[in-house]
Amino acid sequence: MSQSKPNPPKNATMVHADVVRVGHVTPNMIRVTLGGDDLAKFESMGFDQWFRLFLPLEGGTNFALPKKIDLLGYVQYLAMPKATRPPMRNYTVRAFRAEQRELDIDFVAHGDAGIASGWAARTKPGDRVALLDQGTMHNPVPGVDWQLFVTEESGLPAVAGILRDLPRDTKGHAFIEIQSMDDAQETGTPAGVEVHWVVRPAGEKPGVAALAAVQAFELPGGSFHTFVVGEQALATSTRRWLVNDKGVPKSHVTFCGFWRYGAAAH
């Protein structure tokens, strides 16, 4: 759903890695650290770099996967026997340490609800996964005066990665909805970018509070580019509001629904 041109990797290669550490970074976020020599093939692009993550099955997994997941590759993937075909989900690189050959992935903790979050809750060192780099989505229009970021916790790793890697003279605002202030993370944000942590009321649909917060905010003057990801309604509603109500050009909004409320995709 992105309106700006994404940045694909130069040489996307299927990488196999093993879990080396697992732990909570905040009460509602689990960090899984992968390691292994195969990560020497991983091309780090920073920002919101994302990848296809292939997870193991308890009964045994076939990690002999297609070299890329285009139309043909996806057909080949679906043609694999279901009993050994690894589930595939999309995730963001939270951090990559090339010298140590370690890659961090953050998962929103949903207990056993969802394939990926359930795996993150019970995985242990030595478990094997595979991943295929897909590049980055963040590609703001050149020359804008400032940048706007909107997400809930499913998009926190992507937005946090962008904030960490932005040029230090960047100006802007980031609205990040979380379940509790205990879930706020250090982002390494430039001094000119203000992070607004928005705590979601108990029982409220994810994304509602973030949308309300940004709509109530007095947007600074000048041109800006928006990056909004997370729950599908948050992404589409924010884009619609910016384009229809605020007159923002469609080319100045990068948006993507990572998941849809009521449909398990984590």
Give the strand content. Answer: 25-35%
Would you give the CATH topology of the largest domain? Elongation Factor Tu (Ef-tu), domain 3
Unreliable stretches (pLDDT < 50, length at least 5) are: none
Q: Please, how many domains?
A: 2
Order of strands, widest sheet: 4-3-7-1-2-6-5
Rg is 18 Å
CATH class of the largest domain: Mainly Beta
Helix share, percent: 10-25%
Secondary structure class reads alpha/beta
For the record, the CATH architecture of the largest domain stands as Beta Barrel
Question: What's the total count of β strands?
Answer: 12
Q: For the residues shown, what is the average pLDDT?
A: 95
Termini separation: 19 Å
Shape: globular
Largest sheet: 7 strands, antiparallel
How many helices? The count is 5
Summarize the topology:
Elements: E1 14-26, E2 29-35, E3 50-54, H1 71-79, E4 88-92, E5 95-97, E6 102-108, H2 115-122, E7 128-135, E8 146-152, H3 156-165, E9 172-178, E10 193-199, H4 208-216, E11 224-231, H5 232-245, E12 253-259
Parallel strand pairs: 8-9, 8-11, 9-10, 11-12
Antiparallel strand pairs: 1-2, 1-7, 2-6, 3-4, 3-7, 5-6
